[in-house]
Amino acid sequence: MQIPYTVEPRPETGLHNAKIGIWLFLASEVMLFGALFSTYILLRTGSVEWPEGSSILSVPIGTFNTMALIASSVTMVLSWVALKMNDLSKFKMYMFLTYFLGILFLIVKVVFEYIPKYEHHLYPSESTFLAIYFTLTGLHALHILGGVIVNIYFWGPGSKMWETEPERFTNRVEVAGLYWHFVDLVWIFLFPVLYLL
Amino acid sequence: MMDNIESIQKHVRNYLMVFGALAILTIVTVGASYLQVGVVLGIVIALIIATVKGSLVAAVFMHLSSEKKFVYILLGITAILFLVLMFITLFTINDNAGIHVS
């Protein structure tokens, strides 16, 4: 069975189906992270005292990871541009950089943040701040992991589609990019809220 | 959206400019956190900068500055529901939520 509107836009919306699908998914993601941000506000306004993020978390490490994610967003969009210019090798280079920066983000998060926290007995059960910190950043890290897996697929075996259906493959990369930029966008808010305020 | 080489090159320039702006704004966010301006003003400054950065990512990288009407309708509904979700917490401030009663 042929899946309709994978390349040509659907007349009612002017969009191909994958794009509608990813925007609907991202809308649900907004509500998921929105619920957790709302929880954060409730916990913070309801607590008698709240620690300053920088007294528990490392601002330089958080800043480094912010830069890594911002850079990965640029390489992601440039990988899509490379496909638009019919340059698969450039696409592969930018896509490699994208998932490399994603993996770097995860390594820094786990090795330099999560593990030292556990070594210093700073568990999620230790305080409300640590509980919401691990919940928000843990969920975000899982999103990064998901994005890295998808990006590696498109960089590797998934790129075979370029030979048979180049436009459809370009659309797939665009959709993966929208997800990746959203994950970057979430971190842009998480970083000041948790590390700096 | 991207019809010819010239248009693509223009977009690439925009992407790189936004990358520079995001990097600078990240440094500004960190720098602003060291200012002794009080908690409320500190939160306002940090959230304004984060909103500007988020808007740049959404408008340029996610191409929301030139999307189809359907996407705007979808995001408009999402924004309304998101605001409802945020304001729900405000209604609980005057009750006993979060206050331990012994």
Offer a quick outline of the entry.
The complex is a heterodimer of chains A (197) and B (102). In chain A, 79% of the residues lie in helices and 0% in strands.
Shape descriptor of chain A: elongated
Low-confidence stretches of chain A: none
Q: First CA to last CA of chain B: what distance?
A: 62 Å
Rg of chain B, Å, rounded: 19 Å
User: Greatest interface and its residue counts?
Assistant: A-B, 48 and 48 residues
Mind summarizing the main beta sheet of chain B?
none
Helical/strand content category of chain B: mainly alpha
Find the structural class of chain A using helix and strand composition: mainly alpha
Order of helices and strands of chain B: HHH
The radius of gyration over CA of chain A amounts to 19 Å
Number of helical elements of chain B: 3
Q: Could you explain how this protein is built, in words?
A:
The complex is a heterodimer of chains A (197) and B (102). With 197 residues, chain A is mostly helical. Chain A is 79% helix and 0% strand. Chain A is elongated and about 60 Å long. Chain B is an all-alpha fold. Chain B has helices at residues 5-33, 39-61, 69-91. The longest helix of chain B is centred in the first third of the chain and has 29 residues, at 5-33. Chain B is flat and about 60 Å long.
Annotate the secondary structure layout:
The complex is a heterodimer of chains A (197) and B (102).
Chain A: H1 17-46, H2 53-56, H3 59-84, H4 88-119, H5 128-155, H6 161-164, H7 166-196
Helix pairs in contact in A: 1-5, 1-7, 3-4, 3-7, 4-5, 5-7
Chain B: H1 5-33, H2 39-61, H3 69-91
Helix pairs in contact in B: 1-2
Question: Characteristics of this structure?
Answer:
heterodimer, A: 197 residues, mainly alpha, 0% strand, B: 102 residues, flat
